[in-house]
Design a protein that fits this description.
By secondary structure, this protein is of the alpha/beta class. The chain folds into 2 domains: 292 residues, 3-Layer(aba) Sandwich (Aminopeptidase), CATH 3.40.630; 151 residues, Glucose Oxidase, domain 1, CATH 3.50.30.30. It is 31% helix and 25% strand. It has a 15-stranded mixed sheet that branches. It has a two-stranded antiparallel ribbon with strand order 6-8. Strand 4, helix 5 and strand 5 form a beta-alpha-beta unit. The longest helix has 26 residues. The two termini are 32 Å apart. It binds zinc ion (ZN). Zinc ion binds next to helix 9. The site of zinc ion has 8 residues, from helix 9.
Length: 508
């Protein structure tokens, strides 16, 4: 989910605002969806045989790619991931793999801790925040709730370490998709979504969205409002994070922030609030390094009979092992790359460009940079197909910490440009190869661009898009491990993606 362009995307983070805007758009969503299904039946016939790899092959790519504890932008682990992707492209018969450097600041935390009255409390660093040095900062704690203007009126945070709650919006996904049908097309052949299904959007920190600086921070941004009032550090409680995890990697906007910050898990947070309310002192330590570095976009071209482009993308970076985010996305790009390279040229009317981009966790800078650097490709792109976090298992929180599998597949959405042929592509593909629990929703559901790794391409070049993405609870934490991949879903997902490409290939 993209955070680099908060202002452009217009995400307010408030559940009520989002739901009101969805309700207002229902009539046009229903009408467009109906037209798409009608048009889908009149689309030209397309190729039926695309030799997709089997589940073992796709899973072996996920395993091979996710061999390091993380693939954070610009780190040795991140570079290893880039090289691995480049090697796979070469292995698939592309001697000319493009590797475009994208300069960044590489921020690495080496040590962090929170100690209150001499007692250690579990914590995790807030990425890209200020370092304290080995001695840390020592100051009284002060609790500010969620940090509204009223909260800040009641307390003086100058010279103190702020403790604040970070809420996430909760979407009534079952009601939205099954009852009021707030989508163009809904696919759920195994009836995995229930009317009562809900989903915390735990990449939307309502009062710390990201993408802003001290100068342009929203009034409800608790980090920046604390900083501006002279706080010396901040402890952010993941109030709504299921599973009591504190390993939250965000905001990943690529913007450096001066005040040191730590994430605190929900249950530890309850204790910390009590300690803060009684004015206890704490020592917050965050050590690490911040230096100029580089990450890389890795991409190849499979020429077709024309130079019109179908652009297929995902991203290679990840905050932790990243089996689902985005081991699964990268493996699906490779699956299409391998399959379509085996289709004879005369059956490929359009050119395919496969991009595994960098720095989704750096404000989606890889996607933005690719679109700016390759305007020629973007001008020829008739559809952008971005695939992320597909085939991840759904999990629920376990009391005491961690997650339990629910036995279902995590809900996914397809951010779809409301162009009749793009909508019809999705409708037809889902009719032929129904995907488990997915909903095609407007590309601008939450703002002008999809909140996914597609946003850089869409914002820079305005290309039509199908951005297929899932958001299980473990995406930004240490639990995004290989066991979260539902291997039975890998080939069906590849089939649905291949179907969309086939339809676009056959279109005039
Ligand atoms: Zn992703």
């Amino acid at each position: 989910m993209d955070e680099g362009k908060r202002v452009e995307s217009g995400i307010s983070g408030r559940t009520s605002d989002t739901i009101v805007s969805i309700l207002k758009r229902l009539p046009s969503i229903w009408l467009d969806g109906h037209r798409a299904r009608k048009l889908a039946s009149r689309l030209p016939p397309c190729l039926d045989n695309v030799p997709l790899p089997d589940a073992d092959t796709i899973y072996s790519w996920i395993k091979g790619f996710c061999a390091t504890p993380h693939r954070r932008p610009g780190t040795p682990e991140g570079h290893r991931g880039e090289q691995w992707v480049a090697e796979r492209f070469r292995e698939l018969g592309f001697p000319d793999v493009h590797v475009d450097p994208v300069p960044i600041t590489v921020w690495t935390a080496s040590k962090w801790s929170l100690s209150v009255e001499g007692k250690e409390m579990p914590s995790f660093f807030v990425v890209n925040t200020g370092f304290t040095g080995a001695g840390g900062v020592s100051a009284p704690l002060v609790y500010v709730g969620t940090g509204t203007a009223r909260d800040f009126k009641r307390v003086d945070v100058a010279g103190k370490i702020v403790v604040a709650d970070i809420p996430f919006p909760k979407m009534p996904t079952g009601v939205l998709m099954k009852l009021i049908h707030a989508c163009y097309t809904f696919s759920d052949p195994n009836h995995e979504l229930h009317l009562r299904s809900t989903q915390y959007l735990n990449f939307v920190r309502q009062n710390f969205i990201g993408g802003s600086t001290a100068e342009d921070a929203p009034a409800n941004d608790v980090y920046w409002q604390s900083f501006k009032r002279g706080a010396v550090g901040i402890c952010l409680i993941l109030r709504d994070q299921p599973g009591n995890s504190n390993t939250h990697y965000g905001p990943y906007d690529g913007l450096m922030k001066p005040m040191p910050g730590l994430w605190i898990a929900n249950e530890d947070g309850a204790q910390l609030k009590t300690l803060a309310r009684s004015g206890n002192a704490a020592r917050l330590t965050l050590e690490g390094s911040s230096e100029p570095g580089v990450m890389h976009n890795v991409w190849v071209v499979l020429p077709g009979r024309s130079d019109e482009v179908i652009l297929v993308t995902s991203h290679h970076d990840s905050p932790f092992q990243g089996a689902v985010e985005d081991g699964t996305g990268v493996a699906q790009v490779l699956a299409q790359c391998r399959a379509w390279s085996q289709v004879p040229l005369e059956q490929r009317p359009k050119t395919l460009v496969f991009v595994v981009d960098a720095g989704h966790f750096y404000g989606s800078l890889g996607g933005h940079t690719f679109a700016r650097q390759h305007k020629d490709i973007m001008a020829r792109t008739r559809i952008l197909l971005t695939v992320e976090h597909l085939g991840g298992k759904e999990v629920a929180a376990v009391v005491g910490g961690g997650y339990a599998e629910t036995g279902r597949l995590a809900l996914t959405v397809m951010f779809t440009t409301p162009d009749p042929l793009v909508l019809a592509t999705v409708a037809r593909a889902l009719e032929k190869k129904p995907a488990r629990t997915t909903a095609s929703i407007p590309a601008n559901f939450f703002g002008p661009a999809p909140i996914s790794d597609a946003c850089g391409y869409v914002i820079e070049a305005g290309v039509p898009v199908i951005s297929w993405i899932g958001c299980p609870y473990y995406l930004l934490d240490q639990y995004d491990t290989l066991d979260k991949v539902d291997t039975t879903a890998l080939v069906p997902i590849a089939e649905t993606i291949a179907e969309m490409i086939k339809i676009q290939m056959a279109m005039k």
